[in-house]
Amino acid sequence: MTTEQDTTADLACLQELLQGDDVQPAIDLLEGMHPADQADVFEALDEDDQPKMLALLSGEGIAHLLGHLEDEQRSSVVEEMPRATLARVLDATDYDVAVDILRAIPPAEAVMTLSQMSTAAEVTPLLGHEDESAGGLMTPGYVTLHRDMTTAEAIAYLRASKPLAEEAYYLYVLDATNRLEGVVSLRELVVADAEARIEDVMQAETIAVTTETDQEEVANLMQRYRLRSLPVVDEGGVLSGVITGDDIMAVIQEEATEDMYYMAGLPGDDSLHASLLLSARRRIPWLLLNLAAMALAGGIVALFEGTIADAAALAVFMPVIAGQGGNAGIQTVTIVVRGIALGEMEKGDAWRVLRKEIVLGVIRGVLFGVLVGAVAFAWQGEWAWGAVVGGAMLLNMIVAGLLGTFIPITLRAVKLDPAIASGVLLTSFTDVLGFLFLLGFGALAISQLT
Amino acid sequence: MTTEQDTTADLACLQELLQGDDVQPAIDLLEGMHPADQADVFEALDEDDQPKMLALLSGEGIAHLLGHLEDEQRSSVVEEMPRATLARVLDATDYDVAVDILRAIPPAEAVMTLSQMSTAAEVTPLLGHEDESAGGLMTPGYVTLHRDMTTAEAIAYLRASKPLAEEAYYLYVLDATNRLEGVVSLRELVVADAEARIEDVMQAETIAVTTETDQEEVANLMQRYRLRSLPVVDEGGVLSGVITGDDIMAVIQEEATEDMYYMAGLPGDDSLHASLLLSARRRIPWLLLNLAAMALAGGIVALFEGTIADAAALAVFMPVIAGQGGNAGIQTVTIVVRGIALGEMEKGDAWRVLRKEIVLGVIRGVLFGVLVGAVAFAWQGEWAWGAVVGGAMLLNMIVAGLLGTFIPITLRAVKLDPAIASGVLLTSFTDVLGFLFLLGFGALAISQLT
To answer: What sections of B210-348 are H helices per DSSP?
Structure first.
């Protein structure tokens, strides 16, 4: 029995062996490791040692390794590989990994590689689907039965055809034109009477998706109905492939990461292990955009430079009004973005959610408006200060609830990911409007403030 | 074949039937729906109609419904239920749902309910485990074999014992003292020679976790090694339960939601469908905390009230310096928090990540420092303006990278969730320090600025 690997010791040991050119012990060490652990070790090796490690692996070994490498590393391994070797390696990878790799290399090379692959017939149809759709997730490896078979015949068929582990838990029942008629689990087959017909043990009401269904919807569907695998059909109802639960775990993680990243203004391929260059190239354009938004907020302040020169204490309340609005709004944005991603926002919910967030905005606005208004009054000894600061807080809190709901819902309505930029858009608005309320009220009441 | 349900039509139909007291058609409608869809409809019903819907469901029907309701709704259904009914309903729920419900009611009532349950023997040991640990996730329902059985004997045993679908894909091989010796999949059993012994077809190197393992680690492990189920053992290696892939999908979603919420200052039980009262009670304490942080930032500005009165244009750059620092830091915090959650941050990685983020901070700092410094110079026509604004930007960008890494790593080191408050802590620091740099430099150079 083993538990999760800490690969630190394996890494040190492998580095030692590679530097000493101890080939056989290094091969033995690698063969005892899970490909996921091999990938960790590979990513931590020096650039000089990485080719040495690859040389120790068989074609199949490299195929398994590729399935666990991060995109950046995977691309660099594939780039270095002769195209004939690549075809042999891709034949041994999972179909979805082969598809990802063929998509990432220049089209001419992909065609050439594909022409040399023995699994070209299975992989080629998958290339036509969007990466993040059900078609891009499904595997064409599944076992099919006919409704007139008996369970004993079906088991004998399985014993003869020896399907792969990944494919064998659910068996799909097709009619003469390959349209999906039902599903039977291996357990039902084993447990049923030997003479029972498949049509009697199968489940005819099967949940299925089409090849175009978005992966987020696939994930929500499998989780909602607690499915372990999900058949994918084309527009005519013909079975095209199957999505398994373990692929969906990766999708759920990916989609959650993507949403968190989008909200923070990060593209999907940055990560803890991304190179400095990649991280810089990905983050800086976004910060430039953010700078433009902040310049707008600065511009509002510039309009009131004279007001601030007369009543400098207004500047003290700027971060309070803007920061509180930003944080209240981020709470709302997060709830709405996550709710949409989890498929909890249905038709008609938008108005209900908007109403709730506006009421919450008013509650928060009155509470914090009275609080900071009282502080401003106590500090400056003028009722006008309390009114200006408290009023600005009240309005900015209502704006926060309103825009926190409105921004992600609008992004979704125009078919964008609701998470994209919604955080930065929100805080830009709460900054700009917060300053406008505070300094605008201040300018109107300037004779009372000074 | 069916696809995802839009429950709007079902809801309207059920409301109609409930108001007209059309009992039988309502029962037929409900029986045709998946419990996940029933839960959606239930949550959308008026408070008057909810008890009517419950009255139409059998004990088993309510058990399935409870498995799909949100916590808030589930509690209110359970509260209204007589304790004798509850015991009967809990006998029909999944073990993990029963455990959740028994934990949520007063201990004396839980003991009484448990004493009336026929599944008390299976449920009681689960109550001792943390909700978010492997022990809290596992089901005690699994099928065990002995290594000396033949595959034909094993299949005959399965056919006789008819295990539930959830339990049947992996079969666990135990020794005489119930210690886990290996795993065999149903597929391997079916495909193998009928006379082969279990010990010859089983996989002896099995990945397992202990009951105390945190659910996030369980999720990362299952995803890393692409496992469909994972055995849980006690300290002596005795098999205690099994975690299945579909439970883990829910954990992955939950953990991702929790991290997003924590970063935005939201507790885990707020959601799109939470009541106004719950949302207000959850969000306002956090905003009070945030107000204190913003008051600190305001306090820094107050120290420099005189400087601002003399050079009011400094206030124009306040949101630019603070906002840009906050956003750059949020990028870093997000990458680090997500990396830790996905188990990508190993020992020794902290310094490497910190170094990278500091270098990135310097790159961004020089870039944006020169940019906003040039704008400040061009606007005010004084080199000192460029130096004050550019210098503040440079320093705040470095602070953003440094603290963006340091805050979540420190939270983890003191055994807190790295996501908790890391967003608000970060922006509080970048606000406070950004103002301190900008206004401090401004005060030092005040004779050149005016």
So the answer is: 215-224, 245-263, 276-303, 305-310, 313-341
